[in-house]
Amino acid sequence: MRTSTPARFRSTLIGAAAATALAASALTGVTTAPAVAAPSPDLSVSNATAHLQQFQNIATANGGNRATGRPGYKASLDWVKSKLDAVGYATQVQSFSTSSGTSYNLIADWPGGSAENVVMVGAHLDSVASGPGINDNGTGSASILEAALAWAASGNVPRNHLRFAWWGAEEQGLLGSNHYMRTLPTADKDRIRLYQNYDMTGSINPAYFVYNDNAAGNFARDSLTAYYDSKGIPWEYTDPQGRSDHASFRSYGLPTTGIFSGAEGIKTTAQAQKWGGTAGRAYDPCYHSSCDTMTNLSSTAFDRNLDAIGHMIWLYADKTFSTLPGGNILANPGFESGATSWTGTTGAITSSSSKPARTGTWKAWLGGNGATSTENLTQTVTIPATATAANLTYWIRTDTAETGSTVYDTMKVQIVVGGVTSTLRTFSNVGTNSTYTQFTHSLLAHKGKAVTVKLLMNEDSTLQTSFVVDDTAVSVS
Ligand code: PHE
Ligand code: ZN
Ligand code: ZN
User: Fold this and answer.
1) Which residue has the least CA distance to atom 8 on ligand 1?
2) Above 80 in pLDDT, residue 204?
3) Has residue 278 got a pLDDT over 70?
4) Which of 138, 185, 351, 379: CA 20 to 30 A from 252?
């Protein structure tokens, strides 16, 4: 069957701006600021518990919740802001609209540190409407607040710039953190060297999960697991995908990690053996419920994770980023900023809901027209001359209306180096995979050179083939 009209809406104007290398500066991080190498702090769990009690009191005074569009949310934000303002943070309140009403992010910058090397620490501050949200996410919010206050009191001079974020409307679908990343200028996104996410850290039947969500963030993941090891705390990896506020950072290709003590998932027997608690029961039986109150807590997990968070902040405040591996240098690699940094066919980068993105909302959808067409997308990066590894990775999902084993429609993954085009892989209507699959090609042979990454699609006159690409990266170390 012939598709008579193009299968998708093509109206987005693609940016023709020259491609920007995302994190070339990740390899040349400024390290001139004086830094005090500080030991890991023993953050005060009684202070952090008092912050939790404040969230509980705010909920109690405001109809039992701190949800988006309800007064308990703004009251929580105003209170956190006042604590930070009092000790010298530069705070900003960023408002955005949601279907439940206006919400707000609170962003707090500690003055100083290298502006080119920003270490971000975030937690969502909103609860669901059904309860006060003490474990979800009073715990993360109170912990990063206590860490921020302790940092201010420590007198430490950070090498890097520390930025804390309390996100709004996470429970509505990560709206606050998505808003932050969508509106942050590209140059500022590219200065973020690490985003750490803390969403649920005191679950009463606790797990100790470390986000293993992003190859670029493996260095920070490894710091968390090494910390737990040093304390004799068994841990497991988790990949929370689109379930918390790291997602928009991860989608952009920035290093992310985090910790999570578990929500509605059920503790296994093996987990109960190593972590204590009750097998066959949810990590947080009051998840998203009215009983997520001050009694819905493991004070041990809350305390241990508070210190883990402190360790990560103190460690990364002073990290020399020029030596860290694994930076992605492709800008807007998950297409979540639309056409930004990519050049080529108008509308090929789309948030159309008829093909799902692998993560986030946007992806590159080439083909799908069922009509004679050629489409392309390109971006140029420079592989550092000193690279010891350089890998192009991407996820692709293909489907077709063609049948049989004759190739009619193709998408080539190519690189252009010094005017010479090479094809790394050709996808076609034959052997479509209909589920996202990842491919990797080494670019190390081109170190020291500008490499244009190119997706080139050709479709014949009838029967569509769709090539949907998401979550690309050129990871160099
Ligand atoms: N973000 C989820 C919530 O707030 C909790 C969660 C965090 C779930 C991390 C999975 C992984 O409800
Ligand atoms: Zn929640
Ligand atoms: Zn949460």
Assistant:
1) 243
2) yes
3) yes
4) 138
328-476 CATH fold: Jelly Rolls (2.60.120)
Q: pLDDT (tens digit, 9 = 90+) per residue, 125-160?
A: 999 999 999 999 999 999 999 999 999 999 999 999
- Can you name the residues that pair with 452 across neighbouring β-strands? 380, 416
**What residues contact 317, with CB distance under 8 A and at least 6 apart?**
35, 38, 113, 119, 151, 156, 158, 159, 160, 162
Q: Which residue has the higher pLDDT, 187 or 98?
A: 98
Give catalytic status of residue 146 as yes or no: no
Q: For the domain 10-323, what is the CATH superfamily, name and number?
A: Zn peptidases (3.40.630.10)
Cα 43 to ligand 1 centre (Å): 24
Tell me which of 146, 170, 171, 336 is the catalytic residue. 170
136, 200, 203, 305: which to mutate for ligand 1, most atoms within 8 A of CB?
A: 200
| Residue identifier of the C-alpha nearest atom 11 of ligand 1 | 240
pLDDT tens readout for residues 174-202: 999 999 999 999 889 988 999 999 999 99
- Tell me, in angstroms, the distance from the centre of ligand 2 to residue 310's CA: 23
Of residues 80, 58, 81, 83, the one with CA closest to residue 71? 58
Task: Give the domain ranges of the chain.
Answer: 10-323, 328-476
